[in-house]
Amino acid sequence: MSSRTAFVTGASGFFGANLVRELLAQNWKVIAFHRPSSNLWRLKGLEIELRSGSFFEQASLDQALPENVDAIFHAAAKVSFWRSEDALMKRDNVEATKLLLDAATRRKTKRFIFTSTAGVYGYSNAKVDEKFVKEGLRSKSGYLRTKAEAELEVLKAVNRGLDAVILNPATIVGPLDSEHWGLTMRKIKAGQMKGTPPGASSFVHVAEAAKAHVAAFEKGKPGRNYILAGTNATYLELFHQMEEILGLTPKLKPIPEIALQIFAELSQLASHVTHKAPLVTPELLIILAGNTYCDSRRAMAELGLKPKSLEEMLRDCWNSLPPA
Ligand SMILES: NC(=O)c1ccc[n+]([C@@H]2O[C@H](COP(=O)([O-])OP(=O)(O)OC[C@H]3O[C@@H](n4cnc5c(N)ncnc54)[C@H](OP(=O)(O)O)[C@@H]3O)[C@@H](O)[C@H]2O)c1
Is the entire prediction scored with pTM above 0.70? Predict the structure, then answer.
């Protein structure tokens, strides 16, 4: 079988770089679309074609996106829980997706795979599946709102005839994550972590999420959502697993939600003066203090998603970190 070609956005990020590796492992040709300013350390040494440009300049997008490409994997997004970046997220998550969908139609892309988030189904303290209402559209979090709005753009394009599939990962953990869980592990090791978030969530190994994206090219149904999760745990369990991997005796305790809420409100106020992103925000607490689990049976049945243990996810994350 001749090799397929993927046009990948967000390839310089944590998930995108893992997706690129999975595509290469499955013999795809990869074109990684990135900003001129992107730090490409996660893509070093890979046999891919790098094309720089902007979603917001049609000529640069059309020049980078080949005609009749097999698939666009659109993983790029601005991920922030700081309300000062809401306008930026509207632009990077909604407008950019709309422009890329238009380009996909113009350039006759065969299939569009959109990376959304399970968070669009809301944090209702229930076990969510793809039949849940997308509460994200009404979320006070700009991130969750703009991801849900981007999904609407994808669905509008499907109605206009584009072949697209939407994947909804829960919390992704694994290699090449130096900024989120990797950073948390470094802080635990350095004794800088004071406690754990009080909530619970669903987790997916980044390699499994990447495999499900590639499987969606062949097996995903047009216009369909697939939640990618599989491992449900409290943050306390997650952090204790991190401590064990780091060779420490698990001793961190949950921080009461009320204390985190007060800290988040104060941090939010302080950010107006410092203009720096707060460590914790009320929007981030929707996730960290929520108790929402995900049901991934659809992705397991249709895309072959295989849940992994927290231990495997975190060990792979820790072992991949570059020296501090
Ligand atoms: N991490 C998770 O737990 C998780 C969970 C659910 C869903 N997701 C989704 O997975 C995707 C990847 O997330 P991630 O955790 O890998 O985030 P990440 O590490 O922050 O990567 C984000 C990527 O998007 C790119 N990007 C952002 N704005 C852009 C723009 N205007 N033009 C071009 N590229 C832009 C970034 O490029 P630069 O390098 O130039 O900044 C980077 O490559 C996102 O769609 C996110 O919503 C993530």
Answer: yes
